[in-house]
Amino acid sequence: MGLRWTNVQAWTVAGVVAVAGAVGVGALGFVPGQVQAQASTARGLPDFTDLVEQVGPAVVNIRTLEKVSARNMPSGMDEEMLEFFKRFGLPIPNMPRGQRPNPRQQQPDEEQPRGLGSGFILSSDGYVMTNAHVVEGADEVMVTLTDKREFKAKIIGYDKRSDVAVVKIEASGLPAVKIGDVGRVRVGEWVMAIGSPFGLENTVTAGIVSAKQRDTGDYLPFIQTDVAINPGNSGGPLINMRGEVIGINSQIYSRSGGFMGISFSIPIDEAIRVSDQLRATGKVTRGRIGVQIGSVTKDVAESLGMAKPQGALVTGVEAGAPADKAGVEAGDVITRFDGKPVDRISDLPRMVGNTKPGTRSTITVFRRGQTKDLSVTVAEIEPEDGEAAGPGPAEAKPKASPAAQKLGLVVSALSDAQRQKLKVKGGVRVDAATDGAARAGLREGDVILAVANTEVSSLKDFEAAVGQADKSKPINVRYRRGDWEQYALIRPAR
C-alpha cells in the first residue's frame, strides 16, 4: 500500500513535468521560479535526526506492576489454564467455598505486569513526568532509561483531572528535557513524539499541529496533532523543531482502538503547573466558585439580548457558595474573570481552577442588558454533595393557564413556610412540567424565580411575564432546585 501510494505520487509529478515540457510551462500557469520554489520546498522536508539525538536520552519507558494473589485458585486449574488467564488479562476465578486448596498452588503473592507507558525526565535529579492513567493503581513503577538502566520509581503524586503524574527515581546527572513555550505553537508546524507504543521502546513518530485549544476536558485545552500515538505512547513528550517539549501525549480519537490520525497532547505549561504542586505537596489544589455553567448558544444570546454568543452561561448557583455570596444569579453570562475574557464555556473552569483558594477575584457578568462586576472569594474545590431535596408539596394545584400551557407548565403559589424554607422572597412552584418545560429540564418541585428576564414574586407576576414574552422565540427561565439556582430555555408550543 505504501509503495503504491509513493509510485502514484511520483507518476503524477512526472506527468506534470512531461506535459509542461510539451506545451510550455506558461500554458499550465507555472513559471520557472515557481517550479524551482516547489522543488526547494520538497527538498526542505524536516530532518528529525538531530532532535532524536538531543531529546531521546531524556525519554523513558515506564512499566507498572500489580500484586496478584495465587492463593485462591480452584484446585482443578492447572498451570496452562492459569497462564491463559494471565496472558489475556482475564480475571482469575476464585476457589469455590468448601473446596480444599491444592498445596501446589499455595504460592506467595506475585507481581504481574499491569501496563506500559512513556515519560520524560524533568530534572537531572530524577523527577519524571508521565500520565496519571499510566501509574494510577500500580503497586510498583519501573523506569527504564535509554542506556538500559532500570530504576524502581516512587510515585510523588498524580492528578486525574489533568492526567498528569510525577514519579521520582534515585539517580543524578540525568539528561533532562527543555520546556517550550506553548504560546509560540502554531497550527501547521512540525512536531515529533518519542515513546513506547505497544512496548516498542524509543519509537519516533512525527506530524504537524492540527489544532490548538481543543476542548475535550474541563481543565485542559489540548494540542491536537496527526502524530501517530498508540497504546504505550501515553506520557511521552511532544517535541517542537527546537527540541523543546510542548506537550504530553495523552489521548487519541479512535473508532477502532488504534491510531486514526487524531492525537491529543496536554499543553506543557498546564502540566508544569500541576507538576509543581505535586512536587511541593503531593496533590493539586484548585479553586471553585460554586456555579454550574452551559454554552452561550445563538438562542441564549438572543433571549438575553447579547450582541453575539460568548462567555459562560450560569445555569445553576450553589447556595452559600462564593458565587452566591458575590451575587451571581442563574441566567447571568460570565464574560470576564479577573479581567481576562471568557470566550468559551471551557475557559472559565480553567481560570477558576488555576486560581489559588482564598484569592479575591472579579467576575464580570452580563445581566438583563447590562454588564456588572462582582467580587468573589475563590474557595477550594471539593467533592460535590448529593442534590438537595426540593420544596414540599404545595397547598393548591390549579390547572395550567393558557399562557403557562404553551410552556408546558402548571404552577402554584408558594406558602409562607415554603418561602422560609427555601429562603426566597417570591416565586411560584412547578406542580407539573411537560412538553417544552420538561425538555428544558424543569420538573415538579422546582421554584420559578424569573421568566423572560422578569422577576416573579407571585402567580400574578408569573402570568404577566409569560403573557408579555415573545413566544416565537425560546423563553429563558431562572428557577430554584434545592440549594441551586438554575437556568433554562423553554421553547413554547406553536
What does this structure look like?
By secondary structure, this protein is α+β, with helices and mostly antiparallel strands. The two termini are 57 Å apart. The longest helix is centred in the N-terminal third of the chain and has 22 residues, at 2-23. β19 (360-367) and β20 form a beta hairpin. It contains 13 helices and 27 strands.
Task: Name the descriptors.
single chain; 494 residues; Thrombin, subunit H; Pdz3 Domain; 12-stranded antiparallel beta sheet; 6-stranded antiparallel β-barrel; disordered N terminus
- Poorly predicted tracts of residues: 1-33, 95-101, 383-398
Provide a count of the helices: 13
**How much of the sequence is in beta strands?**
25-35%
Q: By helix and strand content, what is the structural category?
A: alpha+beta
Instruction: Work out the radius of gyration.
Output: 30 Å
| CATH topology name of the largest domain | Thrombin, subunit H
**How many beta-strand segments?**
27
Largest sheet: 12 strands, antiparallel
Protein topology:
Blueprint: H1 2-23, H2 32-43, H3 49-55, E1 59-68, H4 79-87, E2 110-121, E3 127-130, H5 132-135, E4 140-144, E5 150-159, E6 164-168, E7 178-179, E8 190-195, E9 203-215, E10 221-225, E11 237-240, E12 244-252, E13 263-267, H6 268-281, E14 287-288, E15 291-295, H7 298-304, E16 312-318, H8 322-326, E17 333-337, E18 340-341, H9 347-353, E19 360-367, E20 370-377, E21 379-380, H10 402-407, E22 409-413, H11 416-422, E23 428-433, H12 435-439, E24 447-451, E25 454-455, H13 459-468, E26 475-481, E27 484-490
Parallel strand pairs: 7-12
Antiparallel strand pairs: 1-2, 1-4, 2-3, 3-6, 4-5, 5-6, 8-9, 8-11, 9-10, 10-13, 11-12, 12-13, 14-21, 15-16, 16-17, 16-27, 17-18, 17-19, 19-20, 22-23, 23-24, 24-25, 24-26, 26-27
